[in-house]
TrEMBL record:
Family the UniProt entry places it in: Belongs to the FGGY kinase family.
Name the record gives this protein: rhamnulokinase
Matches recorded under PANTHER family: L-RHAMNULOKINASE (PTHR10196:SF93), SUGAR KINASE (PTHR10196)
Lineage of producing organism: Bacteria, Pseudomonadati, Dictyoglomota, Dictyoglomia, Dictyoglomales
Source organism, top-level taxon: Bacteria
Length: 493
């Protein structure tokens, strides 16, 4: 079989990467050709995404990719969910995209529920209620009477914005659209009742296409720079979690996954959404996926906590790697400090270390001081939180899950993977760490007719990836301490 090549541009909240996928004889080899740091920028107390720098990084990566592989046939972009930019009729940006961790949505939920009860918002969208969602970001702009709406022609989610910069086309795609909490998955369209009640101009919502749609051709100027022609830009799942779930090497149907990166997204893939009182109470989401599937999952604050303490210590002069940080935790005693990682105070505190210490103080615990203690507290608490969510998941689905796949950058954290197997009492399979890019690439390959369908795609990913199995150990001890975690974390918000 001949080689076919595709390029994934995978933009995460911590880093962006351009990865070439080479398909040959039922195997998919990947090569990272460019990686760059992604950090929001604080300007006058507002947190913005540096989209022009990111686009420059993408262009630098394209030069590297195409100078090595002239026969790349298409490009697909995925990014984190919920954030957006606004463009004018003339194709200018109206303002700079704001990061979902900006404080403009602090306290917004109470105000929003006065406009529409949370039950109704959930019933119409099936999306986990979180202050970061596009709906609440837009509502914060409505409340400040933002003049940006006057010049806005269309709202574009982050991947759409980069597709626009690459092709000039204005469109969005199903998986990323559903992260907004403005999309009705049953009616399969923008939810007009929400737009009307929250006074969001209806006309700014763009046309929605399914994953696997050709968005357009690479802009002429870029093609000339690269010395190539007729390169298609394809919408994979434009939402990174959508790609990550396509990239889970699961087999059969009794597996669940955690897409582990900045966030930990734990759930299953379903053929239709689950929207009922139980899923509302447990605040599970139903994000749109490839082939009209749904990601029934829960957002857990994830390794963001580790990213932040790492960054804080680097600022103080100790720039430790993730491996070093995790090793410090291994040296500490287990089950000393417990936090609820999903406490809203951890969304974007001034100091994560101090926030964790304050949480321990206010819950009557001793205060972790050493770096290793802080990290152990984060990792154990994440594992306990996984147990909370896993229990809800099995109950709502009314079935036993036999194996958990962990994919994404966080799957490299061996200590957390072992903790997860221990507390859940089931085997955990880790890898691939680049599931998102793999998912992105296989959707392009299916679109181009090179791979038949998602079942074949997952087999290719299974056959091409390194995976590691963690068997549960000490589960009884973990469950005894889980009771302690629950006692401490309940009722604190
Ligand atoms: P995102 O796409 O959300 O930016 P990634 O999938 O790149 O996230 O995962 C980033 C996370 O992966 C980091 O926050 C870190 O916790 C974890 N990670 C990355 N490299 C390593 C490593 N060598 N060992 C352990 N964990 C790692
Ligand atoms: C993960 C992710 C997640 C969203 C969050 C904003 O990168 O896309 O699915 O909820 O970022």
């Amino acid at each position: 079989m001949e080689e076919r090549k595709f390029l994934a541009i995978d933009l995460g909240a911590e880093s962006g990467r351009l990865i070439v996928g080479i398909l040959r004889d039922g195997r998919l080899a990947i090569e990272e050709v460019h990686r760059f740091i992604n950090r929001p920028v604080d300007i006058l107390g507002r947190l913005y995404w540096n989209v022009t720098q990111m686009f420059q990084d993408i262009k630098d990566g394209l030069v590297k990719a195409f100078s090595k592989y002239k026969d790349i046939e298409s490009i697909g972009i995925d990014t984190w969910g919920v954030d957006f930019g606004l463009v004018t009729k003339e194709g200018y940006f109206a303002g700079i995209p704001v990061c979902y961790r900006d404080h403009r949505t602090d306290g917004i939920l109470e105000k929003a529920f006065e406009v529409m009860p949370k039950e109704r918002i959930y019933e119409l969208t099936g999306i986990q209620i979180m202050q970061i969602n596009t709906l609440f970001q837009l509502y914060s702009m409505v409340l400040e009477n933002s003049s940006l709406f006057n010049s806005t022609y269309k709202l574009l989610f982050m991947p759409d914005l980069f597709n626009f910069m690459l092709t000039g086309e204005i469109k969005t795609e199903f998986s990323i659209a559903t992260t907004s909490q403005i999309y009705n998955p049953i009616k399969d369209g923008w939810e007009e009742e929400i737009l009307r009640k929250f006074s969001i101009p209806k006309d700014i919502m763009p046309e929605v296409v399914p994953p696997g749609t050709v968005i357009g051709k690479l802009y002429k100027g870029i093609e000339e720079d690269l010395g190539v022609k007729n390169i298609h830009v394809i919408a994979p799942c434009e939402h990174d979690t959508g790609c990550a779930v396509v990239g889970v090497p699961g087999e059969g149907d009794d597996w669940a996954y955690i897409s582990s990166g900045t966030w930990s997204l734990m759930g299953v893939e379903l053929k239709s959404p689950i929207i009922n009182n139980d899923s509302l109470r447990a605040n599970f989401t139903n994000e749109g996926g490839y082939n009209k599937t749904f990601r029934f999952l829960k957002n857990i604050m994830g390794l963001w906590l580790l990213q932040r303490v790492k960054r804080e210590w680097a600022k103080e002069g100790e720039d430790l790697s993730y491996t070093e940080i995790t090793r410090l935790a291994e040296e500490e005693k287990p089950f000393k400090y417990f936090i609820n990682p999903d406490d809203v105070s951890f969304l974007n505190p001034t100091s994560m270390v101090k926030e964790i210490q304050d949480y321990c103080k206010k819950t009557g615990q001793k205060v972790p001081e050493k770096k290793g203690e802080i990290v152990r507290c984060i990792l154990e608490s994440l594992a306990f939180r996984y147990k909370d969510v896993f229990t809800d998941l099995e109950r709502i689905l009314n079935k036993k899950i036999k194996v958990l796949h962990i994919v994404g950058g966080g799957s490299q954290n061996q200590l957390l993977s072992q903790f997860t197997a221990d507390v859940l009492g089931i085997p955990v399979i880790t890898g691939p760490k680049e599931a998102t890019a793999l998912g992105n690439i296989v959707v392009q390959a299916i679109t181009k007719g090179v791979v038949k369908d998602i079942i074949e795609a997952r087999k290719i990913i299974r056959d091409s990836s390194e995976m590691k199995v963690y068997q549960p150990q000490n589960t009884e001890e973990w469950l005894r301490n889980y009771e302690k975690y629950k006692e401490i974390t309940q009722g604190v918000n």
